[in-house]
Write a structure and sequence with these properties.
The chain has 294 residues and is an alpha+beta fold. Helix content is 34%, strand content 25%. The strands form 4 sheets. Strands 7-6-8-9-10 form a 5-stranded mixed sheet, sandwiched between helices. A 4-stranded mixed sheet has the order 11-12-14-13.
Length: 294
């Protein structure tokens, strides 16, 4: 199995983002799936399984979302920019529309997915909350002074930054802004994960690091040692419950406090000869990433 493991900072848990599996002939034998080889002889099929599904959408929501709602990376956001006019008795819909439509047209011509929210039923504050919940990366606010000064206010969803910008060349400016947002969101998520990956070589440090919402990279004697993997799960569950002052987990829980193996990373730190497995005490053959998982 090859896996892509994501990290959810809010809970300190890992979650599989995508996987591929070599299923061998197990299911072929079970369901008698056969093929005829080049010699005309029937053989049991060898199978693989590849998974990159809607689960990745859920992972994205968990990684980037906040208490206000969704926070969508610009590259996959259905709507990248929303234009919200600030209507009032002195700044009517009829006055705002030509100006906002001009901004909309320039953004659209620049290949940006955008919308002009011209609804008069809702006030600007309601619209702000509405589009923030939906995770639209950028909001453009337009008021009467903006029209006078040929500018608009740009509000960034993921960090709340606000900036007054000229509308001349706003298409190219917005493309640069969306690229910056994409990079900033990726960097923030990566830093959150990297800061919670720790190397541990002694069992006494294993569970305390789980309690700190960390993923733990440890010397391991190999995936074939199933009995020691189960031992680590049981010990980590017992010690975690003890540290929390709890007697047992709810039988219906879907998120155990026990640790599990997540993956053996392709990029392996140096493993000095004689390094012992953190669980079995046998010679370690690799570094293995452990953590709590969904």
């Amino acid at each position: 199995t090859t896996t892509v493991e994501a990290y959810i900072a809010g809970s300190g848990r890992a979650i599989q983002g995508a996987t591929s599996h070599d299923l061998g002939q197990n299911f072929g034998k079970m369901f008698e799936i056969k093929f005829q080889n080049e010699k005309g002889v029937s053989e049991i099929a060898w199978q693989t399984s590849w998974g990159l599904t809607t689960r990745t959408i859920g992972v994205m929501v968990m990684v980037h979302g906040d208490d206000t709602g969704l926070v969508l990376p610009p590259r996959i956001a259905p709507l990248q920019v929303v234009i919200v006019p600030i209507y009032s008795k002195k700044f009517t819909a009829e006055q705002a529309e030509p100006y906002c439509q001009g901004i909309l047209q320039e953004l659209t011509a620049s290949g940006i997915r955008c919308k002009f929210d011209d609804r008069t039923l809702y006030n600007p504050g309601w619209k702000y909350n509405h589009w923030e919940q939906k995770g639209v990366p950028v909001r453009i606010e337009v008021g009467p002074r903006d029209v006078e000064n040929k500018c608009a206010r740009m509000v960034i969803r993921h960090n709340g930054d606000k900036q007054d910008v000229k509308i001349d060349g706003i298409g190219s400016l917005m493309k640069e802004t969306l690229d910056t947002i994409q990079n900033d969101m990726f960097t923030k998520a990566k830093q959150a994960r990297d800061s919670h990956v720790v190397q541990v070589t002694e069992w006494k440090d294993f569970v305390p690091n789980l309690e700190k919402h960390n993923l733990v990279l440890v010397p391991w004697c190999g995936g074939q040692e199933m009995e020691w993997e189960e031992k680590a799960k049981e010990l980590s569950r017992e010690e975690s419950l003890k540290m929390r002052g709890e007697e047992a987990e709810d039988e219906q829980t879907s998120t155990s406090v026990a640790a599990k193996t997540l993956c053996i990373p392709f990029d392996q730190p140096d493993l000095p000869a004689g390094t012992k497995c953190i669980i079995s005490g046998k010679d370690a053959t690799c570094w293995c990433l452990w953590g709590r998982s969904y």
